[in-house]
TrEMBL record:
UniProt name for this protein: Conserved uncharacterized protein
Gene Ontology MF: a single term: hydrolase activity
Keywords for this protein: Lyase
InterPro entries the UniProt entry points to: ACMSD (IPR032465), Amidohydro-rel (IPR006680), Metal_Hydrolase (IPR032466)
Signal sequence extent: none
Organism encoding this protein: Stigmatella aurantiaca (strain DW4/3-1)
Protein origin, superkingdom: Bacteria
Amidohydrolase-related domain sequence ranges: 3-246
PANTHER family cross-referenced by the UniProt entry: 2-AMINO-3-CARBOXYLMUCONATE-6-SEMIALDEHYDE DECARBOXYLASE
Amino acid sequence: MIIDAHAHLSPTAYGSTERYLEVLRQSGIEQAVVCPGGMLDVRKMNEFVSGQKKPDAIPKNEYVSQSVQAHPELHGVACVDPCHPQALSQLEALLKQGFHGLMVSPLVHKFSFSDDMMAGLATLCGEQGAPIISHNGWRPGANTLDYVQLAKKFPRTNFILEHMGAHPADAEATEACASLDNLFLETSLGTHLHVAETVKKAGASKVIFGSEFPLSHPALEMKKVYLLPITDGEREQILGGNIRGLLCLD
């Protein structure tokens, strides 16, 4: 079974649940892991990265929850702001609602992976069997090695690093993924060479297929996995088996 492990849903024309479901049908993908989107307009990403525009800091967890309840092929991952004083209780409540994991966004919320609140969130996720998912923030305190250090401190919590780490190839992410049992890399927007080298070094069990909808298309991102020189069994792991196990979707 193919599962898109990384899509963002938002009440917008470009990132709506209805549009995503149509994209999944076009791609021949049966299930997906979805998290809140729309906090920044991905069509104008450069304006947010450069600081010209400020994101909407409130995650649309309710929209994702409604989408998951209406469409059982979707599995929700919650987002909370680690800087919020009630972040821990917010996450606990969202996990009780049925969310499968925690996404944090260092481009939207100005935290560091070494912050005390991140430690509390990581502890809770480990206790609940819920992975933490994040991308790089491309600033001190929110880069690959900062995320790796967090994963090392909490070996009972699983961590997924989006986009294979930093573009266009992140050797630090590959090395850490190969050496840490609890760190996984997600393929969306990653280069084919970097994905191939990571699979070769860390193994197919440490790599997870995702699309980064609406910024990219699942069929396009999936093509990179089909072009990898790997066995059918390894491809099945990347395209669905790994994320199914991490989120206990069975």
